[in-house]
């Protein structure tokens, strides 16, 4: 089943996750679809900026805990996008919720436009799992470290207004207009010299990526410890059974 739609508006590629019945949770099909979409975008010299959206109701609820997200891809890594070495700008257009891996997809983008009712959260600790798609180190890069720890350790939701206040969201717009505003922003970028834009983006990313290897190593250690725990089994089971977890701390 096709769960990722791709369209073009001039120089702007629009990539839409279309698995609404599962709150756009990322399974193997979504990972493959995003990977293919961004491979094509990166390789197309006529497309200069991309927008990622989940449609008019919600952005993405993160990993599908029942089916899993599929294997990381060669060019994109997790979700076909998280570790991608992009040369062209990507803007996330967020309506509704962006939880867990959905939040991490936003972190893998260059700019974020959010509807006023959008909500962001990293709820992994509530499930006995860990944010393993970049949030462990990107959150503290994108917002103040104490706020990053609050998001990662509480799993609490924040509003679009709060996300803008801490510097994560670029623009907060009326409900239902995130995509149009993101496309307008993308067109503003695309009006500039593409070589200048791409070289500027790569220079900024090269500076920011200086600690990525350490970040991914720390993430791998955390994932290994969590995967071996009874708490992870209990957290996932409780989520799927729609009950409160009973933690044992090991």
Q: Approximately how much beta-strand content do the residues carry?
A: 15-25%
Q: What order do the SSEs take from the amino end to the carboxyl end, as H and E? A: EEHEEEHEEHHHEHEHHHH
Unreliable sequence segments:
none
CATH class placement: Alpha Beta
Textual characterization of the structure:
There is one protein chain. With 250 residues, the protein is α/β, with parallel strands linked by helices. It has a single domain (4-196), classed as 2-enoyl-CoA Hydratase, Chain A, domain 1 (Alpha-Beta Complex), CATH 3.90.226.10. The protein has ten helices and nine strands. Strands 1-2-3-4-6-9 form a six-stranded mixed sheet, sandwiched between helices. A hairpin with a 2-residue loop joins strand 1 (4-9) and strand 2 (12-17). The termini are far apart. The model has no long low-confidence stretch (mean pLDDT 96).
List the topology elements.
Layout: E1 4-9, E2 12-17, H1 28-43, E3 49-53, E4 90-94, E5 97-99, H2 101-107, E6 111-115, E7 119-121, H3 124-127, H4 135-142, H5 145-154, E8 158-159, H6 160-165, E9 171-173, H7 178-190, H8 194-208, H9 212-227, H10 230-240
Parallel strand pairs: 2-3, 3-4, 4-6, 5-7, 6-9
Antiparallel strand pairs: 1-2, 7-8
Helix pairs in contact: 4-5
């Amino acid at each position: 089943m096709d769960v990722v739609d791709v369209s073009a508006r001039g120089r702007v590629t629009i990539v839409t996750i279309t698995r609404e019945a599962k709150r756009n949770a990322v399974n193997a099909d979504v990972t493959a679809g995003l990977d293919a979409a961004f491979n094509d975008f990166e390789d197309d010299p006529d497309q200069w900026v991309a927008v990622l959206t989940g449609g008019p109701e919600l952005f993405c609820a993160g990993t599908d805990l029942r089916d899993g997200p599929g294997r990381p891809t060669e060019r994109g890594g997790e979700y076909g996008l998280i570790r991608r070495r992009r040369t062209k700008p990507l803007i996330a257009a967020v309506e509704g919720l962006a939880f867990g891996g959905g939040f991490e997809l936003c972190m893998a983008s260059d700019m974020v436009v959010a509807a006023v009712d959008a909500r962001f959260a990293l709820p992994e600790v509530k499930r006995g799992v860990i944010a393993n798609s970049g949030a462990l180190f990107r959150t503290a890069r994108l917002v103040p470290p104490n706020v990053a720890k609050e998001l990662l350790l509480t799993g609490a939701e924040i509003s679009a207004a709060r996300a803008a206040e801490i510097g994560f969201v670029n623009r907060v717009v009326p409900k239902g207009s995130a995509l149009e505003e993101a496309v307008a922003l993308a067109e503003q970028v695309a009006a500039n010299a593409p070589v200048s834009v791409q070289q500027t983006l790569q220079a900024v990313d090269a500076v920011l990526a200086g600690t990525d290897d350490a970040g991914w190593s720390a993430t791998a250690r955390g994932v290994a410890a969590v995967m071996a725990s009874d708490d992870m089994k209990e957290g996932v089971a409780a989520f799927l059974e729609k009950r409160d977890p009973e933690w044992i701390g090991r």
